[in-house]
Every structure is written in structure tokens, then in C-alpha cells.
């Protein structure tokens, strides 16, 4: 049975490459992963004043993450870190319910630059290692897809063989990891 995965895209841009990457992964790995994009676009700005009674957008987001069996982040890099909209969604997940806690999780990311969101992903790993978040994060398997616009065709499929081979190995590693840690 495919693992029910909540995909959190760290970009609220309609033409987001990270969204396209996840839509591609959803089709490519349909037997292993049942990926649903859980949008951060309608998540209200976090305030500790409303955290105990989250507004609808935040509540829907938190509930979808909590109900998933696993989480997949797709992160762009903004100013050497993760975009603010993603940090806001993470702040919501860190409070009532602790939605990410112990959830088997892995991370991918892409950008048009050569570094493929490496600095953002390093920050993301540090942020979610906070005890109030702390998913069961797949170690290693760091997916930095640089120059993404040269690696996708008009159907938004990745045409670069090396990237596809690496993604295949990461997904296989995640499924193996998931089966090991899910009941721990
Ligand atoms: C960027 N971009 C960017 N790229 C990068 O490699 N390092 C960086 O620090 C930044 N900073 C940055 C700040 C802001 C405000 C924007 C709008 C963009 C480029 C960015 O990573 C690129 O546009 C990605 O394609 C965005 O991801 P999506 O929306 O395509 O998923």
C-alpha cells in the first residue's frame, strides 16, 4: 500500500518549480507514495494570541498534516533560508497538536540557481530538529536540484537521468526508513 504523504511546498507561487517537482513525484512514485499537496497558501499569520483556537486556514493545514502517515517538504531558497510563508506554517505545526512530531519525513528542494536550495534545506533541518517539531527525519538523502528549469520539459517532467536516478534511490530509501520507524 502506498504511504499517505502530505507534501508541504515552501512556495506560494503559482508556477513554483517546487510544486511542479512534487506533482512530478506524485505521478512517478504512485505505487510507493500517495502524495497530497497540503497548501500553505491559506494559512493565516501565526500569533500566540490565537494559537489555542486556530483560524480555519491554519486548522485545515494542521489537520491534514496530522492525518497523513508521512510528510515531504519541497523547499525553495529565499535570502539564504526558507521562505517566510513556510516558516509561518512550521510555527503553526510547532504548537497545539504538535502535528509534525514523530512523523516520518523527508526533504527535497530545487531552484534555478546551481545550489538547488542547499542553504534553505540546511536551515530547515535545523528548525525542525526543535523538540516541539521533531519529525522522524530521513537521514542523509539530501536532494538539491539546481538549474531546475533546464531539467524539466514542457510537461514538467524531469528529463535529467542523473536526477531521476537519485530521486528513485531517495524514495526507495524513504520507504525502507518509513517501514522501520513507523511503529517505533
Ligand atoms: C530568491 N531566490 C533565491 N535563490 C537562491 O538560490 N538563493 C537565494 O537566497 C534566493 N533568494 C530569493 C529571495 C526571494 C525573495 C525570491 C523571490 C527568490 C530564487 C528562488 O529560489 C527561485 O525563484 C525559486 O525558483 C523559487 O522557488 P519556486 O517558487 O520556483 O518553487
UniProtKB/TrEMBL annotation:
Transmembrane segments: none annotated. Pfam families: FMN_red (PF03358). InterPro entries: Flavoprotein-like_sf, FMN_Rdtase-like_dom, NAD(P)H-dep_reductase. It is an enzyme of class 1 (oxidoreductase). The keyword Oxidoreductase applies. Keywords: Oxidoreductase. GO terms for molecular function: oxidoreductase activity. Its EC number is 1.-.-.-. Residues 3-148 form the NADPH-dependent FMN reductase-like domain. PANTHER family: CHROMATE REDUCTASE, NAD(P)H-DEPENDENT FMN REDUCTASE LOT6. Belongs to the azoreductase type 2 family. This is NADPH-dependent FMN reductase.
Amino acid at each position: 500500500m502506498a504511504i499517505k504523504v502530505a507534501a508541504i511546498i515552501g512556495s506560494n507561487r503559482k508556477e513554483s518549480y517546487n510544486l511542479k517537482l512534487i506533482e512530478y513525484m506524485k505521478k512517478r512514485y504512485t505505487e510507493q507514495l500517495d502524495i497530497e499537496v497540503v497548501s500553505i497558501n491559506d494559512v493565516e499569520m501565526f500569533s500566540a494570541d490565537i494559537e489555542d483556537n486556530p483560524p480555519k486556514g491554519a486548522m485545515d493545514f494542521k489537520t491534514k498534516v496530522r492525518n497523513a502517515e508521512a510528510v515531504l517538504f519541497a523547499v525553495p531558497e529565499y535570502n539564504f533560508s526558507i521562505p517566510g510563508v513556510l516558516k509561518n506554517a512550521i510555527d503553526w505545526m510547532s504548537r497545539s497538536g504538535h502535528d509534525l512530531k514523530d512523523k516520518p519525513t523527508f526533504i527535497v528542494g530545487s531552484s534555478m540557481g546551481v545550489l538547488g536550495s542547499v542553504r534553505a534545506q540546511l536551515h530547515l533541518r535545523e528548525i525542525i530538529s526543535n523538540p516541539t517539531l521533531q519529525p522522524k527525519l530521513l537521514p542523509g538523502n539530501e536532494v538539491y536540484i539546481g538549474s531546475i528549469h533546464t531539467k524539466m520539459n514542457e510537461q514538467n517532467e524531469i528529463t535529467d537521468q542523473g536526477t531521476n536516478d537519485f530521486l528513485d534511490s531517495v524514495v526507495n530509501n524513504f520507504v525502507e526508513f518509513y517501514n522501520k520507524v513507523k511503529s517505533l
